[in-house]
Amino acid sequence: MLNTIGVIGLGVMGRNIALNMAGKGERVAVYNYTRDLTDQLVVKLEGQSIYPYYEVQDFVQSLETPRKIFLMVTAGKPIDSVIQALTPHLELGDIIMDGGNSHYEDTERRYDALKSKRIGYLGIGISGGEVGALKGPSIMPGGDQDVYEKTASILTKIAAQVNGDPCCTYIVPKGAGHFVKMVHNGIEYADMQLIAEAYTFLREKLQIPVEEMADIFETWNQGELKSYLIEITAEILRKKDEVTGLPLIDVILDKAGQKGTGKWTSIQAIDNGIPASIITESLFARYISALKEERVQANTILTGPKNVQQTLDKNEWIDYIRQALYMGKVCAYAQGFTQYKMTSELFGWDLPLKDIALIFRGGCIIRAEFLNVISESYQEQPDLTNLLISPYFAEKVTDYQIGLRKVVSEGINSGISFPCLSASLTYYDSYRTSISNANLLQAQRDYFGAHTYERRDIAGVFHTNWL
Ligand code: 6PG
After folding, report:
1. CA distance 379 to 354
2. What is the rounded distance in angstroms from the CA atom of residue 344 to the CA atom of residue 240?
3. One CATH from 1.20.210.10, 3.40.50.720, 3.40.50.10490, 3.10.20.30 for 5-174
4. pLDDT by residue (tens digit) across 281-329?
5. Full-model pTM
6. How many whole angstroms from 205 Cα to the centroid of ligand 1?
7. Which of 68, 174, 181, 341 is catalytic?
8. CB of 128 sitting under 6 A from ligand 1
9. Can you tell me the distance from the alpha carbon of 339 to that of 330, in angstroms, rounded to the nearest whole number?
10. One fold for 5-174 and 181-431
């Protein structure tokens, strides 16, 4: 009997995707470049319909045609190597799916190369970490629609389900699936950093003990802030270190890592004139955190403001922080969805924003209650230029700016760094400013470089002889 799908790459994500597929009734062939991971999986199979192969050729020949091969391999060169090893064994119409965090431009290059060989290629954004891979991730497939249709029954079945709807939708040609995943991760970076800043305020300004902070996040998770990242933050804050008995959060070194997707999101935004300041600030916050030794040294030389000790009304301020966090999140998602919209227009992609919000409701790391409203906003106004001006969010941010303003100014006056909360407020204020100071920038550019400017009153391009 032939296998219905193959998975290459048996690290934790690949292994869990294979188990997920087998659990949904697929016969799954698996292959790993090194034998050890295959053997580790085989030991745990217990009657699951997963079949290991140790040679690429045997793996490929075990699959029914058109062959569907799912790669869960480290992004970058390893993907090219696997494709190179696979293609001599494939036939016209076979399909390769890349489920890793590949850069969308690499996906487009691979798509083009395989298209010329008439092999289907889907770049598939997958979010949800290892649990999501096993129990149902959010899935963002990009490539040719007819190729997607051949894999849709499997992909929709293994995806997270929300109210009976799979968190998987076709995301237009070529690299768009991986692009959507990339910006998802940019939003993820911003969302995580905003939560970290709310935690800082609770901790440093309100002096709330870790256990109590866990309660606050748990309460927030029952309201409009309800989201996976708020939920896990409450759980993280409750966790005790087995070695010292202290809250685990207090023994974790304050140096953030990153694997590149937030950086790619920032670069793409910068390259294409897209305002993504909250996302880029969250990336830079990780970079500054990584300079731990320098920060420790600077702390012995540089001081913050003096005499800022003042007692704040705890409950009143907890609600200001809740408002600030909600508004920050709205601004961060607004930037991410603007990046989708502007890129979609630039590249002629027609990204389905309403559906992207829908598939983010389950399985993925940025899943959040308010994605329902985001999706409805795009349903009501498909050409919505920015989420901030949708009726629902415009009213929310108008109300909640008080919280964000109070928290940012109190934090800044106290010398606390708030890269993403302050970037959110700046974004909000810049976006609602009808007459900005860019007139002065234009005048300066024209003064020193004859770069010209436009006028408010007369159409055309002007240069002044300033001297
Ligand atoms: C997801 C995650 C996932 C992964 C990122 C984290 O959506 O499931 O985003 O893709 O955890 O690689 O990236 P950093 O290591 O850059 O934080």
Report:
1. 6
2. 45
3. 3.40.50.720
4. 999 999 999 999 999 999 999 999 987 667 889 999 999 999 999 999 9
5. 0.96
6. 30
7. 181
8. yes
9. 14
10. no
